[in-house]
Amino acid sequence: MYRRSLLRAGVAAGSSVVIGGCLTSSDFEPLANPSVPEDRPDGSYIPSHVSGMEMIGMAEQSDYAFGAMYSIPHQFWNVNGTSVSYTDVENDDDIHLMASVWDPETRTVLPETGLSVEIYQNDSLVSQETIYPMLSQRMGFHYGANFELNGDGEYTVRLSVGAMSIRRSGNFKQRFSEPATVEIPFEYSHYVKEGLAFERTEAQPATNGAVNPAYMKMVPDSVAPTQYDLPGTSIGTGMSNDAKLVVAVLDSPPAGIDGDGQYLAVSARTRYNRVLLPAMGLEGTLSRDGDTVYDGAFTRTLDPELNYHYGAVVDSIESGDRLTLRVTVPPQAARHIGYESAFGGLMGGMPDVSITVE
After folding, report:
1. Which CATH architecture has domain 233-356?
2. Does the fold of domain 233-356 match that of domain 2-200?
3. 2-200 — its CATH code?
4. In which band, very low, low, confident or very high, does the pLDDT at 33 lie, cut at 50, 70 and 90?
5. pTM for the complete prediction?
6. What is the mean pLDDT of residues 28-55?
7. Checking CA distances to 93, which of 45, 148, 188, 290 falls within 20 to 30 Å?
8. Is residue 78 classed exposed, middle or buried when 0-12, 13-18 and 19+ CB atoms within 10 A define those classes?
9. Reading across the β-sheet that carries 49-51, which strands appear in turn?
């Protein structure tokens, strides 16, 4: 059942193996949330189990494409500013609904759309919950929450996004400026959900690292470009509580961004698997021979070439310059198990990153 559901979701069969090896009947266990290790590290770690998911469906409307999936209900940690709060699974929770939103033309995942979810049965509202931007080792960046249903049967999930408020550049400048709503019908079966059994990871739990993502052909991955696939010139990287900050410089700002000079782009991703880290507060100081060249914010920006990033226009960048990046607010996304102690989560704090331009 677990393999059937993964294939239905477009996941490559090989990616269901977490740390290598083969699956046997002993690898599948009853539905339960993994225990939180007491000795978890200050950063990303490998959880004891991962779970499968069932594809609900996809739809397009206006500038947006939507995909919806569900798995068993999950525990998670909400992040509000610098505060972190734990959300446990309630007795009435039936599923953990996950949704992804992307640009159907470029398949670029859209992290800051704002998303609301309603679930209907026979035109009657069954469940309506706040759905959170989330980070998961299996699903990457997505929107998710636990929902209660009325047992087996046919349902409709209604997904609504608002206009994107973050800065957009290039061909994205005039796009994603209107709200959109889609409805996706699906059939829920407790039997199918029970088939989404947990898979034990082969590594020692609480070991630094991350499990393999559950790649799906139909839903684009929420990963950042590799360091050398970013436009411009890569000038260095740095790590802050398992957030990898990759810095590139462009000779001029992307179309639609005001200012004269060169453009510093910071692409933030997880240390493992390059999952995008959105909704941070980021500032930086560029200094040269003891003088400050730039000191200020790096603006959250969506660009078709740079993808989601944090950017600033500076007068110039020269060899020997020193760039110091400061995370003022950690990524405002809830965390699934394995990520709750990383990226300024439970352990708190994201150290400054300093890069010397070669």
Report:
1. Sandwich (2.60)
2. yes
3. 2.60.40.2480
4. low
5. 0.88
6. 77
7. 45
8. middle
9. 28-29, 198-200, 49-51
